[in-house]
Amino acid sequence: MSDKYDVIVIGGGPAGYIAAIRAAQLGKKVLLIEKDKLGGTCLNRGCIPTKAIIASINLYNKLPLLKRYGLSACDIKIDMKAVIERKDRIVARLCRGVEHLLKQNKVEVVFGEGKLIDQENITVGSQNFATRKIIIATGSSPIELPGMPFDGKQFFSSSDVLGWTDIPKALDIVGGGVIGVEFAYIYSSLGTEINLYEALPALLNGMDKDLSKSAEDLLKRKRVNLKLDTPFKKEMSCGRSLICVGRKPNKINLPATKDIVYAGDASGGIMLAHAAYEQGMLAAEGKSWDQKNIPMAVYTHPEIGSVGVTEKEAGDRAAVSKFPLSALGYANAIGETEGFVKIVADKNSEELLGIHIFGSGASDLLSAATLAVKKGLKAGELGSIFQAHPSLGEGLQEAALGIVKKSLHSMP
After folding, report:
1. Are residues 164 and 84 in contact, defined by beta-carbon separation less than 8 angstroms?
2. Measured in Å, how far apart are the chain's first and last C-alpha atoms?
3. Per-residue pLDDT tens for 117-143?
4. Is 216 a residue whose pLDDT tops 50?
């Protein structure tokens, strides 16, 4: 038994590599098996590549506004080949970082497809590895629509799009979730004619209604043709269709037990990289995962951030405060006045139930918002914590004070 690994992790994405590192920190002998690239979908084909592209898009969108800031520029162009090359450099650097972290933590890494023989043995090619515990973190894959397989010609997944160096004249985007909304923002900024199809009546299903409405208004201003409550059919395709209707777990047909644990997207729960990080850590520690109050961000500009329950979910117990960013001195100084901070609290106890943000820096404000909601702070407690002035964080304080009728910079 001495030659056995204590833990074998299958999959080197956010859940997998974090599980491997944490298990090694706990003194375990760990092997990580990865069939593609370390970092998984998030680092190679998801979160990081899209944000790198969006960073270029945000600057491109800002250039025509330079006169407002007392600046001028001419001959503004965007080179998508250079944008993609920058994205690739960032991804490569971060992948090397993951490799280095695993090495420094003495995690052994084997590349290839791991196949489970039984609850204690895994093969990779001709090699056999024995273990006491298996953590399955095999990630997820984009869902295809019936009759519309990803062919790289007419129907594309989000992974395919991340390599495009041309700017399409027209593009269908099927799915109005986070991925669809972000790609609609990217390509509408580049002048592509976008038809965005969503089978449900609103974008960003599951988010607070004010965030959904803000996303819709934003994309309409960018001349995206929103086709809500409209299921997409093959004959509707303009010839180039991005299908982003969700993802499915890459399951291994082995039931979960005390010594076989699923983590990340493979578990079939919330498919977010930061949720996978937490699941991976807890899987290594042998602890269960609480899915409550997982933050979510959408990286349009303005950004969208949300944690906790929505106003609709809170129902009759909801007390709501909504503070406009236009009332903040810092938002005016940097020219980012669009948006709001909305707080949903229990009207009796004043406990914070949810915080929803539309505006510049929403993803950063979400850190403090998540801490407040997860720790069950009351609105008055968050409102009593003074923020740096001037800052966008003052919006959190003001919205919290609004619940207890003490907001200082909004009309009563």
Report:
1. yes
2. 70
3. 888 999 999 999 999 999 999 999 999
4. yes
Q: Is 255 helix (H, G, I), strand (E, B) or coil?
A: coil
Q: Identify whether the C-beta of residue 311 lies closer than 8 Å to the C-beta of residue 368.
A: no
Cβ-proximal residues to 376 (8 Å cutoff; 6+ apart), any chain? 351, 352
For the residues of 178-213, what is the DSSP string, one character each?
Answer: HHHHHHHHHHHHTT-EEEEEESSSSSSTTS-HHHHH
CA distances from 1 to 5, 8, 239 (A): 9, 15, 58
For this structure, is 389 an active site residue? yes
| pLDDT of res. 180 | 98
Domains 144-243 and 296-403 fall in the same CATH topology: no
65: three-class secondary structure by DSSP = helix
State the architecture of 144-243 in CATH terms.
Answer: 3-Layer(bba) Sandwich (3.50)
Residue whose tokens read 């009207």: 347
Q: Residue 185: which of 98, 323, 292, 302 has the closest Cα? A: 302
Phi, psi of 64, rounded to the nearest 5 degrees = -65, -10
So what's the pLDDT on residue 3?
Answer: 66
Domain locations in the chain as residue ranges = 5-141+248-285, 144-243, 296-403
Q: Report the C-alpha gap between 333 and 323 in whole angstroms.
A: 17
Give pLDDT tens digits for 240-275: 999 999 999 998 877 778 889 999 999 998 999 999
Residues 6+ apart with CB under 8 A from 258: none
Class of domain 5-141+248-285: alpha beta
Residue 1 has pLDDT above 50, yes or no: no
Average pLDDT over every residue of 113-118: 91
d(CA 117, CA 134): 12
DSSP structure class, residue 316:
G
Contact 106, 24 (CB under 8 A): yes
Residue 131 tokens, joined: 């273990």
| pLDDT averaged over every residue in the chain | 95
Is the domain spanning 296-403 CATH 3.40.50.720? The answer is no
Q: Which letter does DSSP use for residue 412 in this model?
A: -
Cα(209)–Cα(304) distance, rounded to whole angstroms? 12
Catalytic residue among 100, 356, 389, 409: 389
Phi first, then psi, for residue 395 (nearest 5°) are -65, -35
Instruction: Tokens for 189, please give them.
Output: 């900024």
CA–CA separation, 276 vs 281, rounded Å? 9
